Amino acid sequence: MNTTTINRFRRLQLLICMLTLSACAFGAERATVIPAPAVDNPKAAGPMQTAVLAGGCFWGVQGVYQHVRGVRKVLSGYAGGDKSKAQYRTVGTGRTGHAESVEIQFDPKQVSYGELLQIYFSVAHDPTQLNRQGPDVGTQYRSAVFYMDDSQKKIAEAYIAQLDKAKVFERPIVTTVSADTGFYAAEDYHQDFLVNNPDNPYIVFNDLPKVHNLEKLFPRIYLRQPVTVYAANATR
Distance (Å, rounded) from C-alpha 151 to C-alpha 154? Predict the structure, then answer.
C-alpha cells in the first residue's frame, strides 16, 4: 500500500467521522489534565531505556513523543503479534493480534517512564476507548502498554489504578498491560508521518491538536524541534 492510497483511506475515514460525530466522539484531539504517577522511577543517569505504547494510529502517538525532551528516538510499528504478520496491510485486518504502537528510546536522566505514561494517558490518546481511537476502529487501534521489565509493569499498573480511583476520566480506563514480546518497525513511509505531512487532513484534525496539547500541558518537557527517525539514525 503506497502513501497515496493511505492518504485516500485516511481522508475517507475523516469524512465518515465528520458525518457521524456521535460515533467518533472527537476523543482523539482532546486532552485530560491528570496527576503525575505516585509510583515512578527516580530520574538517574544510565543507559537508554525503551518504552512500547499503543494508542490508536501510530502517526499521532509518534508525533507527540518526538516533541518530548529526553526522548532520543521514536519508531512507529507493531506490537502484540508475530513478526511474520507485522505488515500494515495485514495488521489492518485486525486479526493479527498486533496493535499500532510506538517504540520510544529515552534518557532516564531527563524523563522518567512515569512521565512518558502521564503524557500517554493525558494527551497522546483516550485510554477509555475500547479497540478504537477517534475514527479508527479495530483491535489494532487498542490502548495497550507493553512493558519491558517488572519495574515498568509495576508503574503502569499502579498508575492505571491511581487514575481510575481518582476518577479523572468519565469512563474506566481500558488500557491493557502486558509483556513486550517483540516490536516490529513499520514501513518507511509511516515514519515521521506527522512531521512530513502537517497539512494532511487526518493529521490536522486528529493529531496536531495532541502536539499542541503537549506544549500547553507539559511546557517543561516540551521540545519544539522534533526528534525525527532520520535525525536519530544519522547520530548513531
Answer: 5
One-letter amino acid of 192: D
pLDDT of residue 10: 57
Are the beta carbons of 56 and 203 closer than 8 angstroms?
no
Top pLDDT among 53 and 9 is at 53
Which CATH code, of 3.30.110.30, 3.40.50.2300, 3.30.1060.10, 3.40.50.10070, is assigned to 3-234? Answer: 3.30.1060.10
pLDDT-derived band at 188 (thresholds 50, 70, 90) equals very high
Report, in this order, helix, strand and coil percent for the chain, each rounded to 5.
40, 20, 40
Residue 17 designated active-site: no
The number of beta carbons lying within 10 Å of the beta carbon of residue 46 is: 10
Q: Which of 14, 53, 54, 57 is catalytic?
A: 57
Q: Output the CA angle 101-32-73, nearest 5 degrees.
A: 35
Q: Give the alpha-carbon dihedral of 159, 162, 166, 167, to 10 degrees.
A: 60
CA 43 to chain centre: 22
